[in-house]
Write a structure and sequence with these properties.
This protein is α/β, with parallel strands linked by helices. It has 7 helices and 11 strands. It is globular and about 45 Å long.
């Protein structure tokens, strides 16, 4: 199994997902999303991963490389390939599936618990856990037709969705301590301008929260990709 990762900025990587992939002896390849000529032909059991980034789906009309990226992702969707989308990646998938992507009046940033949908917990054989997850977004979307919701928060009614071959997260279950710090360091002038609309903890690289979110992410990945066995990441 090979993982092809479309990356929009160098400091927003696959984080825990990369650790998980390598622990299972699989390959993960980063592809600069802004260089469509470098996009590989997907084959076999390749998994496409579309990461987050500072862009918005609403830039599509004037952004050529982004339109090419959407076309590439749409081909994978039509081929029924396994696809994981995170933040911007999930917004692109929502757009491809025909739903509206809009902008919140203020950013949702930092740590906050989610209200997980019962159907998601049942389908992925996981327990309800009230743990903080990391958020870093201002765009949101409606639930695509034919998809099931993952969770919601106070100001984001759809915090992700899934189908038999798509797993899309609006929040960031993959973030490592280093990844969060990179976001903070590269967006430090903007953070103070982003007044939060809900009572949530500010963005900080909390090792305890990060570990909890990875423990939540691991069984979801195993179920979605049909990989089972003894735990390989401590």
């Amino acid at each position: 199994m090979r993982f092809i990762c479309l990356q929009h900025v160098w400091y927003d990587d696959a984080g825990y997902l990369e650790e998980w992939v390598k622990a299972w002896g699989c390959e993960l390849h980063y592809i600069d999303a802004k260089k469509p000529d470098d996009y590989p032909v997907l084959q076999g059991d390749d998994v496409l991963v579309v990461l987050g980034g500072p862009n918005s789906v609403q830039e599509l009309p004037e952004n050529k490389w982004m339109q090419q990226e959407v076309d590439y992702i749409e081909n994978a969707v039509n081929e029924k390939r396994k696809i994981i989308g995170i933040c911007l990646g999930s917004q692109m998938l929502a757009h491809i599936l025909g739903t509206e992507v809009s902008t919140l009046p203020k950013y949702e940033m930092g740590w906050a618990e989610l209200n997980w949908h019962t159907s998601f917990l049942e389908d992925f054989d996981i327990d309800q856990l009230n743990i903080p997850m990391f958020h870093w977004h201002s765009d949101i979307y409606d639930l695509p037709k034919g998809a099931k919701p993952i969770a919601k928060s106070e100001i984001t009614p759809v915090q992700g969705f899934y189908t038999d071959h798509i797993l899309a997260f609006q929040f960031h279950p993959e973030m490592t301590v280093e990844g969060i710090q990179n976001l903070i360091d590269h967006d430090d002038q903007e953070i103070e301008k982003r007044d939060k609309t809900v009572d949530m903890e500010g963005p900080r690289a909390d090792p305890g929260y990060v570990e909890q979110s990875h423990n939540r992410f691991q069984p979801i990945l195993e179920k979605f990709l049909n990989v089972h066995g003894e735990k390989k990441i401590d």
